[in-house]
Amino acid sequence: MARERTSEDFVRPLRRLLVGLLVLVCLLLFVVWRIDSPRVERLRADVIDAVVPRLDWMMAPVTGIIALGQDFRSYQRIHEQNLELRREIQQLSVWREAALRLEQENAKLRDLNNVSLVPQLTYITGTVMADSGSPFRQSVLLNVGRRDGITDGWPTMDGLGLVGRVSGVGQSTSRVILLTDSSSRIPVSVEPSGQKAILTGDNSFYPLLDFLEDRDAVRPGDRVVTAGDGQLFPAGLLVGRVALGTDGRLRLRLAADYEQLEFVRVLRSPLVEAIADTGGLIVPTAGIAPLPPVPGDPDFIGPPPPPSVLAGSSAAPATPEPGGD
Which GO terms describe its cellular component (predicted)? Predict the structure, then answer.
């Protein structure tokens, strides 16, 4: 039985014929292109003039793909450079922060070196190790202690103003009670009026000015220094300036920068007396008469007895009764 012919049977010979013709044309063109003749040269020129302008349009997709590949490689290089620049910027940012921190530390140290203090006072500069501030206690811990000669009660300052006093000394550390602590009470003097007051901490950044002699003589902005009363602090140390609180009470805007308290100067104050006996009372004894003994003291004898008692208790000779031997 004969097989029916399909379209593939007609297309296959035609395809072979076209391929053969294409190969033949290519060979002819190659041969003709190699012939060195004026006529062939003119033919080649005419073919080039006719074909080359159309080749640009035909090669546009290929040119675009090549340009796209070049752009992709260029973008890749740009991306790598961008990552490298970002890493450099990050490193520079770290160096910049370090430089700013060193600049601030140097500025504070310069301030510490340029502060005008009482000539008799020397000092030790310590670094704040920890801030134990809380709603009920305001204090900081320094990296200087008993080995550095720190004594309880010495005043402390930053580059400009009074910070507080030493309260607790260890071998290599010491604790400073800030002026804002609720247990802090120091005598101060308001300038230029000369009014005396007590600076009272209340765990806020603006401690109170209490016990003013004449409140009307004090104005916001007046300078406040230590009074030196009671030999607690040397006189003349800058504390801050007067400010009016929202509650209508006079408060103090401290000169010390509590928000950036990094370096603290501990003043060796010769006025602070060392307390060896915590249960004793330190008072001058010269010119003061001793107090009389009171009941309960070992030296208390009591008032002398009346004469009748003394007469009755005397050892008198016994009188013989009548009729005795």
Answer: plasma membrane
For residues 280 and 268, what is the distance between their CA atoms, to the nearest angstrom?
Answer: 24
Residue where a domain stops, chosen among 223, 238, 268: 268
- CA 181, CA 214: separation in Å to the nearest integer? 25
| Distance between start and end Cα atoms, the chain | 194
Model-wide pTM > 0.70: no
CA distance 148 to 67: 75
- Considering just the CA atoms, what is the radius of gyration of the chain in Å? 52
- What phi, psi does 19 have (nearest 5°)? -65, -40
Domain that holds residue 25: 19-58
Task: Indicate whether 89 belongs to any domain.
Answer: no
Helix residue ranges per DSSP H, the chain: 7-34, 38-58, 60-114, 307-312
Instruction: Report the C-alpha gap between 175 and 171 in whole angstroms.
Output: 12
The pLDDT assigned to 17 comes to 79
